[in-house]
Design goal:
Number of helices: 11
Mean pLDDT: 60
Radius of gyration: 22 Å
Distance between the termini: 50 Å
Strand order of the largest sheet: 1-2
Shape: elongated
Low-confidence stretches: 1-6, 122-152, 166-260
Structural class: mainly alpha
DNA sequence: AATGTCTCCAACCGCCTGTGA
DNA sequence: CTCACAGGCGGTTGGAGACAT
């Protein structure tokens, strides 16, 4: 079934914005705000759809946007946040003031991903948490991984992790979703967080090997039974603020981990 | 200088979610 | 509860400029 277009395409302009259009949009938003994106272009006299206006504003025209190249620190932050949050560009952008999700996504695909591929061992370590597992599942490298298949559950877990990272470390933890990662966490109290750790160095090496590998066999689900043994992942219960601080530091400052 | 190839990024597309009637 | 709508998000693409031959 073909989905109807988001807006009436007839007579609406597409493609790059002209400086004149930018000025019209800026002037309108500065004067009236952007309460209703769908109605905005008509009211502002723009031959664009609301979506296009919103995108142009949020990704380019907003006054608080930082232009120019990403600093090394910003790139490192993106790498680390990507490890934790996956392809949740808006969540990553929320932690990088002045940068947009689109910009971060572009930087990731054009620079950072390549860098990680070229030199995975010097890059930051992959996250050992829900998103890492979700990533493995999404890429079909380990479809047998015993984690929630429900997309909503995954999203809830990601949101919890994000909240955990965004909140003050001393604030009370969020309640965990009903059926959490793997079975052990089902025993966790509502105030606990579950983060996965790897039991020993040998398992860590093995895990990283599979995580970073692009070997064709890993793309073949039939070979996955011979893949990483996920019994080597163990859940960690964060029962107090002190351990929350510890894992927050560990997850964010991955440089503190020993080299493989 | 001309042509082909590659890289990058702004913008689009379609899906998902939240909200209000 | 259901439906429609609007906003938001992530994946993808097309074209312009850079670079290589």
């Amino acid at each position: 079934m073909v989905r109807a277009p988001c807006c009436e395409k007839m007579g609406l302009k597409k493609g790059p914005w002209t400086p004149e259009e930018d000025q019209v949009l800026i002037a309108y938003i500065q004067r009236y705000g952007h309460g209703n994106w769908r109605a905005l272009p008509k009211q502002a006299g723009l031959l664009r759809c609301g979506k296009s206006c919103r995108l142009r504003w949020t990704n380019y025209l907003r006054p608080d946007i930082k232009r120019g190249n990403f600093t090394r620190e910003e790139e490192e932050a993106i790498i680390k946040l990507h490890e934790l949050l996956g392809n949740r560009w808006s969540a990553i952008a929320a932690r990088l003031p002045g940068r947009t999700d689109n910009e971060i996504k572009n930087v990731w695909h054009t620079h950072l991903k390549k860098r990680l591929h070229q030199n995975p061992t010097t890059a930051s370590r992959p996250a050992v948490g829900p998103d890492c597992a979700a990533y493995l599942r999404q890429t079909h490298r380990h479809p047998h991984l015993d984690l929630p298949t429900n997309q909503q559950q995954q999203r809830q877990q990601q949101q919890q992790l994000e909240m955990f990272l965004l909140e003050s470390p001393l604030s009370p933890p969020q309640q965990q979703s009903s059926s959490d990662l793997s079975s052990p966490s089902s025993s966790s109290s509502p105030s606990n967080h579950t983060i996965f750790s790897i039991k020993d160095d040998e398992s860590l090496k093995e895990f990283n090997g599979y995580y970073w590998s692009d070997a064709p066999s890993m793309e073949d689900p039939s070979t996955c039974q011979e893949g990483f043994n996920y019994s080597k992942l163990q859940p960690i219960q964060l029962v107090d603020n002190e351990s929350m601080d510890f894992w927050l530091n560990l997850l964010v400052e991955t440089d503190t981990l020993p080299d493989i």
